[in-house]
Amino acid sequence: MFTFTIMDQTNRYFQKKRILNQEFSDYHSSFVKKFGIFAIVYTYYKQRQISVFMPSSNEMIESNDTNVSPQSEKEGLAKDVARWSNRCNELIEQCNKVDAKEFARLQAENGKLWGQLKKRQEEHSAELATSQENLTKLEEENGRVAEEKRQLLGTINR
User: Fold this and answer.
1) Alpha-helix runs per DSSP H in the chain
2) Hey, is 58 helix, strand or coil?
3) Alpha-carbon torsion 73, 78, 79, 80, what sign?
4) pLDDT (tens digit, 0 to 9) for every residue of the chain, 158 residues total?
5) Contacts of 43 (CB under 8 A, 6+ apart)
6) Alpha-carbon span 103 to 42, nearest angstrom
């Protein structure tokens, strides 16, 4: 029977979390590429934990009565339609307030920064590879020096 230690389970959990975060990041990037400004507005609201899709809780109709008449249900739905309409108009106004030139400049800057990041990652990976090669050579040399030291101590002790 195969059992996991707590450390194994923790490592697996964090590995899954990293994978899920990467997948989310990939999906988010493709979402932003597809939907542009609307995705950015959505991200803005999501980061601030403001609901984009739902009216605020004080705007919601609280109906605890199980015997709702068709007329009151119709009135409630009309109020919901009005709230949703207002919410959509607010979001459209916020999207229209974004300066197109500024948005284009920020997108270009973002692309430039991603390019710099990828370039630096490549540089660091190349540097890491050479450092690992140097480390291997130094370890081999250290082993040879240790062997020579052992031999010299052996000849001195004889």
Assistant:
1) 6-35, 37-47, 70-97, 100-157
2) helix
3) positive
4) 455 677 777 777 788 888 887 777 777 677 666 666 666 666 666 666 554 444 444 444 444 445 567 788 888 888 888 888 888 888 888 777 877 788 888 889 999 999 999 999 999 999 999 999 999 999 999 999 999 998 988 888 77
5) 28, 32
6) 15
Q: How far apart are CA 45 and CA 56, in angstroms?
A: 13
State how far the Cα of 36 lies from the Cα of 113, in Å rounded to an integer: 18
**pTM assigned to the model:** 0.34
CA–CA distances in Å: residue 97 to residues 31, 90, 91, 102, 120: 21, 11, 10, 11, 35
Both tokens of 66, joined, read 């199980």
